[in-house]
Amino acid sequence: MKIKNEKEALQMFCENKGTIFDSPFINVMDNDRLMATDRKVMILVDNSLLQETYEAHSQRLPNFDTTENTDINIPFANIDKAFSQFELVPETIKIDGDIEKCPECDGTGLVDYTYFADNGRTYDKECDCPICDGTGTYRSQKIVETGRMIPSNFSYYQLNGVYFAAKLFNRVVEALRLMGFESMRLKSCKPKDPNKFIVCDGIELWIMPCVDIDTKIAQIATL
Fold it and tell me: What pTM value is reported for the model?
């Protein structure tokens, strides 16, 4: 089999922080399997299932406990039913606003530093403003609603006694559906360590659970 919507779906597992993990890549330290991760969820795909080409990097895999202690089928339809139990909130994102005068340096690009030395002397120095990098301006940001309704940050799925952030879990399911899948299997279930799922032969998935859930404010839907 080949993955549908391959690059679009795999990109949904990546982070956007200017690191090696910003895009999927072939991991030469893992039998050339593809790795895509945002360090909360990680998908590993056998090279034989890929149609697209990717950059190759060397990345040591995390030292996960791979002991399989369960085998639970999770149809995504069950997740849809659990999702309906949540009270949803509007999704918001940050977008760039106008270029404005830096309020920290009042647009001068410079700020005064004071250093108190061990010998009792005080040193004053004028340096580039660390907020605007000496430019005197910065681009403001606005928070806008996308029009989508999503679970709050305090919404969790409970699966076999383990809690997963609903927003993270939903993103995983959305990506896997885009690939053409409608279920996955939980193979390694641990309340404080990454949990292993198998999507199909050749696709392995790891998801970090949530610990120390505040049940007084949490919304919890059981799968």
Answer: 0.79
Report the C-alpha gap between 203 and 115 in whole angstroms.
55
DSSP per-residue letters across 174-210 = HHHHHHT--EEEEEE--SSSPEEEEEETTEEEEE--B
d(CA 223, CA 189): 14
* Cβ atoms 41, 54 nearer than 8 A: no
Per-position pLDDT tens, the chain of length 223: 779 999 999 999 998 888 999 999 999 999 999 999 999 999 999 999 999 999 999 999 988 888 899 999 999 999 999 999 999 999 998 888 888 898 888 889 898 888 888 888 888 888 899 888 889 898 888 889 999 888 999 999 999 999 999 999 999 999 999 999 999 999 999 999 999 999 999 999 999 999 988 888 999 999 9
Specify the pairing of strand 155-159 against strand 219-222.
parallel
Alpha helix positions (H), 59-182:
76-83, 166-179
As a whole number of angstroms, the distance between CA 169 and CA 92 comes to: 18
